[in-house]
Amino acid sequence: MDTVTVISPNGEEKTLSPSFSFTVFFFGFIPALFRRDWMGALALFVLLSVVGGIGQQLNLGILGFLVNLAASFYYNKNWLQRASQAGWRGANDYSQQVLDRLNR
Predict the structure, then answer these.
(1) pLDDT at 75 over 60
(2) To bridge 40 with a disulfide, which of 32, 63, 73, 101 should be the other Cys (CB 3.0-4.6 Å)?
(3) 5 in any annotated domain
């Protein structure tokens, strides 16, 4: 699986997959807290809680699983887009190309 390494304006470096977030899949909104992505954490918490609660009320447990799966595909891509707009840059040519492609 390809990984992207990005560097913040203050020199902080992060490496992640631009496609699927296993950490979001298994731990929900908690990885966003470790990234200090407060809005992402809040959005994931609300989305997973509300949909999970509705799914439980309607005896549709699969609904929560499907939303969690979709969030796992969406979160890293969205975080990379927002990080790029905040001044983060790719640590190498491939990473920069991925950031450029996401921000088209």
Answers:
(1) yes
(2) 32
(3) no
State mean pLDDT over 83-87: 92
| 36 lies in some domain | yes
Helices 61-85 and 93-102 cross at an angle (nearest 10°) of 110
- Provide the β-strand partners of residue 21: none
pLDDT at residue 102, as a whole number: 87
Interaxial angle between packed helices 38-57 and 61-85, expressed in degrees from 0 to 180 and rounded to the nearest 10:
170
pLDDT digits (tens, 9 = 90+) for 57-74: 777 778 888 889 999 999
Q: Collapsing DSSP states into helix, strand and coil, what is residue 35?
A: coil
pTM of the predicted structure, to 2 decimals: 0.81
For 3-25, b/e burial (b = at least 16 CB within 10 A) is ebebbeeeeeeeebebebbebbb
In a domain, 3, yes or no: no
Overall number of domains in the chain: 1
Q: Which residues pair with 16 in a beta bridge?
A: 4
Give the structural domain span for 69: 28-84
